[in-house]
Amino acid sequence: MKNRIKIVSLALLSTLLFASCETDTSLESTSSTSSSSSSSSLTSSSTESSQTSSSSVNFDDFEFDFPAWPELDKDVYPQEITFYSMNDTHGNLLPDEANEYPGFVQTVYEIKHQADFFASSVLVSSGDMFQGTALSNISEGYAMVDAMNMAGFTGMAIGNHEFDWGIDALEKLAERANFPFLGVNILNQETSQRADFAGDYCIINRGKAKIGIIGSIGSDLESDISASVLKGYEFVNEYDMVSQIAKSLKSEENCDIVILLTHQSPDTGLSLLNIPEIDGIFGGHDHQTHNETASGKKFISAGCNSSYYGQIKFVYSKEDGKYICDTSLESTRYQEVYYDPTKYDENVMLVANKYNEVISVISETVIGKRRGELVRYNSDATSSLYGYAGTFLCEAMMYYATELNPVDNVVAAFHNTGGVRSSWVNTNLTPDENGLYNITIGDLYSMSPFDNMVQYVDVKGSDLIDAYKDHYNSLGFEEDPSSYNSLYLNGEKIVSSNIYRVVTIDFVITRKSDPLYSENGGTNLNGELAYIRDVVSAYVQHLGTVEAANYTRS
């Protein structure tokens, strides 16, 4: 029987079953939608979870008094209507000290303390709000959606990461939200009708002004979602749909302003400003800031991780009898929010604290130590002692595939670059007397927030070479400077026609555009369901201390 290592099962903890139990009880790694093999090598001590509560916690029971938005005189057009948008917040509800993310609590504070913020203002989102931190992930988005309810959001475009926990979880979030989830071009393939969980538009009022808000997602983003989750749905080109709805909102509903929320960058979405009835667009997805112009109108994207917000301001012209966009940089822009934990919206913080009181018992659990920093990019490093997070994750998979739950002939591990979401840096953190920094469950969620399974797949050498070019990889590779397509692994040249067994995550294997794609999917190691965070947690506890300098790029 292979050696079993007791670990904190993150997939299990995310189900929020905080039932009391004895400290010697062992629970198998699982998730709310899957069960693991009876011979699981990834088992978990429930000591930590037993400390949280003597009874189970159900986030459906969390209730808050959400304030109503101030009413304006319905016979008067507000002089100004300013839209404020956030996108790609990825669960960053509270400030992140190490990465100096301000957190949703501060960004809302900054918005509501702007000179242009009035009762006539409108809060919206362009998607990817939930997936990315322990606080949001363990609550499956409830913490963030309740925070958005408290802040007064009026609509949100559905982003690709809203699908990460499955359609059922997405539907539950949409039901809990006091604002609509919008995706005009998300269709049920069987009926060719818009998905039940997605609205197409909503109408709100600010005084006498009538505002239409449409939502969409980039039609090319299907490949950014696990194929098993998106099965039965498709994203189609939205131009004609948006055009038809916008025209109806202006001509039939008599909307004074029509805004589009779309989860895509201006590279693919800027042309939507050519629709005459669209007055402005808030975008997202690429985690960049954008202030682009087309047809004299604005496309604004506000970065990511709560570090920015977007703003588009309209001023009522009595002479023209309509609202005109103020395109000055002070009024229509993206604005950076600088980390300052002394600033936060008190009402939103009440929501965050209620969830964090329960979840921090898990997220702050220490599972190991590290010496140095593990970074996504060189620019993230704040010290000279660092290694690469992607390499670290790949080495964790190699440990799992060759030692903890060994499978014959695994030669390398790969991880997509987009799946590594944060760096473990030392900023604002205090080391212990040995110069070591804690690694917590919360750290695992921030670096690897997605519920991806670790699997193996057999591929041609030519595909392995392409994967090396596209992805993070395990150690042992060496390039041939004289030939672009020559690659060595552990001293042996990769032969394009040979078959090699590699370990990676199911997202990579099921993505049709990926060099490691397999039509038949990947294979669980020895039949065991293993989630990437569980694998990394086991690796950290196996090492005790992670030496960051060991994870160079090869």
Automatic annotation (TrEMBL):
Q: Can you supply a Gene Ontology BP term from the record?
A: nucleotide catabolic process
Question: Mind listing the GO molecular function terms for this protein?
Answer: hydrolase activity, acting on ester bonds; metal ion binding; nucleotide binding
Q: Where is the 5'-Nucleotidase C-terminal domain?
A: 389-467
Question: Which residue range or ranges hold the Calcineurin-like phosphoesterase domain?
Answer: 84-288
According to the record, the signal peptide region is: 1-19
**CDD domains (UniProt xref):** MPP_UshA_N_like
- The reply to whether Transit peptide figures as a keyword in the UniProt entry is no
Region of interest called Disordered, as start-end residue ranges on this chain: 27-56
Q: Which keywords does this Swiss-Prot/TrEMBL entry list?
A: Hydrolase, Nucleotide-binding, Signal
Instruction: Provide the family line.
Output: Belongs to the 5'-nucleotidase family.
Task: Name it.
Answer: Bifunctional metallophosphatase/5'-nucleotidase
Source organism per UniProt:
Candidatus Scatoplasma merdavium
